[in-house]
Amino acid sequence: MSKRKHSSSAGTSQKRARPAQPEEADEESDEPRDVHPAHNTHLTSGEVGIIESISLKNFMCHALLGPFTFGPNVNFVVGNNGSGKSAVLTALIVGLGGKAHATNRGSSLKGFVKEGESSADVSITLRNRGPDAFKPEVYGDGIIVDQRISSDGVRSYKLKSKTGNLVSAKKEELIALLDHFNIQVDNPVSILTQEMSKHFLQSKGEGDKYKFFMKATQLEQMKEDYTYIMKTKTVTQNNIEKHEESLDDLKRQYLEKEDKFKSLASLDEMHDKLEELKHQMAWALVTEIEKQLQPMRERISAEENGTVKFDQKIEEWKGKVVEAERKYKAYFDQLESVSERVQVLEPQCRSLKEESQAKSNACKAAEAAYHRNMTNLRHLEKDKEQLTKRINELKNSVSQSTEADRLQRLDRINRLQQELQALRDQDATLSQQQDQFQQVIGKYREEVAKLRREEQDLQRQTEAKRRDLRDMQASRTDKIKRFGVQMPGLLAAIDDAHRKGQFKEKPIGPLGFCIRLRDPILALAIESCLKALMNSFCCDNYRDEKILQAIMSRHYNQGRRPQIIVGEFSRTLYNIRDRAVNHPEFPTVLQALEIEDPVVANCLIDMRGIETILLIKNNSMARRVMQSGNPPKNCREAFTQDGDQVYMNRYYSCDQKRALYLSGDVEEEIRFVCHFRMHGSCSQ
C-alpha cells in the first residue's frame, strides 16, 4: 500500500497554547508580551494542552531561566531587554518539536546552545486533565516534555509523567501528543513571532496577506501534499503496468522453454549411446595394452639367459611400442571425432534439461579420462621398473663383451630412456588437461544450478495460479470452497466433534461465510477492510479453542491456518448507539452487511470496529469527507469501492483488484484468472 508522507492538519484548533514572542537582546522592546492559553469549546477552563510551566538551562545566552509557572487563562511575560522574553517563546517552539528556522532566531539548533556549553535543556509541562486527556492512565494530570540539544545540533526527547517517571523517548510519541492536543508550533495562527507579525503588518499587498492566509490555514501544505500524492500515484500506476507486462513475458518464456524441452527429449537416447561408447573405448584401450604387455613380459623372461638375442628382443619391443602408439592415436582420433559430433549436437540442446545433461556428460567424460590416464600411468610405471631392471641386468651381462657391442647397447639404452621420458611428458600434459576439464565442469555446474532455480521460481508461480483456478472452479458447486479446499472437510470435522459433545459451544466460521452483502459493488471494500477475518473462527472459551486447533492441524498440514478468536458468545447485539457512525449518505461496514448471528457481528465489532468505518464508493469523495478537517463523528477510517483505505491524514491504496470471497459471479472470477495464463488451458 502507498502511504502519504505528510499528514494533513485539522482546520480548527480546539486545544492549543498560544504564547506570543517577545524580542530578544538589543532587538527586544519593553512592551509586555502575552501568552494565550488554549480555548476549549467543551470546557469553561482549559483542561488539556495548557502550558503550566517552562524552564531553560544553557539556552541561548541564559545559563538558567525559570521555571516559569503560568496561570490557566491569559498570561503576560514582561521584563527588560535581554531578560529572556524571546528566549521563552523560542524555547517553547523548539521544545515542542519546531524547527530552527520557524523561530526566526537561527538556522540550526546548535545555535541555541549557550557558548562554551556542551548542551542546552528545555523542560515544558503541559496540563493533562479532563475527558480529552492524552493517556491519563500513563501520564496522569500533567505531561513533562524534556528536550536536550547538543552542541552538534542533535536533540533528544523525554516524555515524563506528572510524577517524573520516564514514559517515552521517541519523537513519534511527541507528535502523537501534539496531534491529540491540536498544537501546531509552526502555524502563525498558533504562535506568532515578532518577525512574522512585523511582516504581516507592513505588507500592503493582497498577495502577501493571501500567502499568510494559505500558510496559517495550511492550505499551501495541503496543496503540496496533493501534488505529491498525484505524482506518486502516477509513478505507482506506471510501475504496476510495467510489472504486469514483465509477468506476461516470463510466462511466455516459460511456455517456450517447456515446448523446447519436450521436443528435445529424444536426445537422451543419443547421449546414453555416446556414454556407452566412451566406456567401451576406455576398456578397449586397457585390454589392448594388457595384451601388448603380456607377450613382452614372456619374451623378456625367456631371453634373460640369452645375451645373443638381446638386440632382436629390443627391436621387437620397440615395434610393439610403435604399434601401441599408433593404436592409441587411432583411439584418440576416434574420441575427437565423437567429441566433434557432440559439439555439432550441442547448439540444438538449449533447454534447461538438455544443458544439465550435457554438463553431466562432460563431467563423466572427464572422470573416465582421469581413470584411463591413471591406469596408463600405473602401467608405464611398471614398464619403467621392468625396463630399468632389464637394462641393469644387460649392463652386467655384457660387461665382458666387446667394446663395440657395449657402446651399441648403451646407445640403444639411451634411446629407450628418451622414449620413456617422452611418455612421462605426455602423462604430465594429460594431467594438466584433466585439471582444466575439472574447472570447466565446476563452471557448468554453477550455471545449471542457476537455471534450475529460475525454472523452480516459474513453476511455483504457475502452480499458485493453477491452485487459485482449481479453488474457484471447485466453488461452482460449493461456495464454501472459496475459503480453501480444506474448508469443507474442516467444517465436517467440527460438526462431527460437536455431535460427540466435545465443544461447549460449537465454533462459528469462517466469518466471511456468515455475512451477506446488501450492495454487491462494495465486496472489494469490505474484503479489504476485514482481510484475514474473512477466514477466522470464533470460539466461546479456550478449551474449545484447543480442540479446534487440533482439528485444524489435521486439515492444514502446510500453510497458514485460519485465525481463532476467543470470546464468550453473546446472543444479543452490542449497544453501539453512542459510538457508531451515523452518516446521512454513506453506510458503515456494519450497515452494509446482513449478519444473522449476533456472535459474528459482535466479533467483527470487537476485532475491527466495523460500526466506525464508512464505505464511500468514490475516491475523491472519500478524501473530502475524511480529510477536510471535520470528519464525521466517531469515524476512524473509510474504505472506497476500489478497496483503498482513507484516514484523516493519510491514504492507502489497495493492491487487491477483485473480491475473492464475496463476489457473486464465480464465472467472471474464473475468466479473470484464465486471462493471466498465457497459452494455458481452462477447463469448463
Question: What are the salient characteristics of this protein?
Answer:
single chain, 684 residues, 6-stranded antiparallel β-sheet, 4-stranded mixed β-sheet, 16 helices
What's this entry about, in short?
With 684 residues, the chain is an alpha+beta fold.
How much of the sequence lies in strands comes to: 5-15%
Pick out the low-confidence regions.
Answer: 1-45, 676-684
Number of strands: 17
Q: Structural class from helices and strands?
A: alpha+beta
Give a short account of the largest sheet.
6 strands, antiparallel
**What share of the residues lie within helices?**
40-55%
Sheet with the most strands: spatial strand order: 4-3-6-7-8-9
Number of helices: 16
| Arithmetic mean of pLDDT | 79
The rough form would be described as elongated
Termini gap: 35 Å
Classify the oligomer: single chain
Radius of gyration: 45 Å
What does the model show?
There is one protein chain. The chain has about 675 residues and is of the alpha+beta class. About 50% of the residues lie in helices and about 10% in strands. The protein contains 16 helices and 17 strands. The strands form five sheets. A six-stranded antiparallel sheet has the order 4-3-6-7-8-9. β11, α13 and β12 form a beta-alpha-beta unit. α7 runs parallel beside α9 and α9 runs antiparallel to α10. It is elongated.
